[in-house]
Amino acid sequence: MGDRAEEAVVLKMGDFTDALPPLVRIHSQCLTGDVFHSLRCDCRAQLEIAMKAIALEGRGLLIYEHQEGRGIGLLNKLRAYELQDNGADTIEANQKLGFESDLRTYQLPGAILQYFGLRRFG
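Above: the chain sequence. Below: its structure as tokens.
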């Protein structure tokens, strides 16, 4: 990960003091899907489903991570879109750009879960 600072926004709902595991969603930022409703992915739908499930449950944690495009960043994600227009899938496009299929890391979400004392999840 180098010198890049990892960032996340955490939304917490309800009390986590009982023994029941809370619902947890770790969501990687997707500007094109989450904000602009891109049809290339189901990221926004996944985010909405997670938030509704947490709201219905009355407790849960949403960790929204700054790891756009499976960790390759927004500009490279847009370059991958161009390759996808020519028939590549997400993994192939990332690899053609010189990246692994998924560069996301989960150290920060792990630390966030520990911060909230979570050991079991629903």
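The chain has a mean pLDDT of 90.
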